[in-house]
Amino acid sequence: MAFFNHVIEADISANTYPEPILVKQGDSGRAIIIYPTSGGEPWPIPDGATAVVHILNPMHQSATYEAEITENEGRQCILFRISAEALLEAGRASMDATVTVNGVTVSTLNFMLDIEPAPASDFPIPTPGGGATREELE
């Protein structure tokens, strides 16, 4: 499966969020590539490190997903392939990528996901223009 990549540079020393990542509810063809930096310079991910991604969805339910530490275009990065399950609820979600070495957290990078509602989903769609909802059509 081909993935649409969201590429982000995230400074481990900053205490601000990068721009929210715009995704569609229920989509499963997206990946996030995170290039960690420190003070604007590439941050070398320690040898033997592992990464996970935690997502707190708009309904305030938390889930943890495996991520991969790899190289892309000659730079170390954290790669996370988003599953449809991670994008089940439309709205704003909080996401962090945690890098650990021997069970010790060495860095956590924070992001926001803006999950747009999918018109073809199983979720009710508000119809401010007066159109019929999916339930009314069935």
Can you put this structure into words, describing what you see?
The chain has 138 residues and is mostly beta strands. The chain has one helix and nine strands; from the N terminus they run E-E-E-E-E-E-E-E-E-H. The chain has one helix spanning 134-137; strands spanning 4-11, 21-24, 30-38, 41-42, 50-56, 62-72, 75-82, 91-101, 104-116. Strands 1, 2, 3, 4, 5, 6, 7, 8 and 9 form a nine-stranded mixed β-sheet that branches. The two termini are 33 Å apart. Residues 125-134 have low confidence and may be disordered.
Helices and strands, with pairings:
Layout: E1 4-11, E2 21-24, E3 30-38, E4 41-42, E5 50-56, E6 62-72, E7 75-82, E8 91-101, E9 104-116, H1 134-137
Parallel strand pairs: 1-3, 2-9
Antiparallel strand pairs: 3-4, 3-7, 5-6, 5-8, 6-7, 8-9
Strand content: over 45%
- Overall 3D geometry? globular
Rg from C-alpha positions? 17 Å
SS-based structural class?
A: mainly beta
Oligomer: single chain
H/E topology pattern? EEEEEEEEEH
Major sheet attributes: 9 strands, mixed
Q: How many strands appear in the DSSP assignment? A: 9
- Indicate the percent of residues in helices: under 10%
* SS field, number of helical segments: 1
Instruction: Indicate the low-confidence ranges by residue numbers.
Output: 125-134
Distance between the termini: 33 Å
Mean pLDDT, all residues: 84
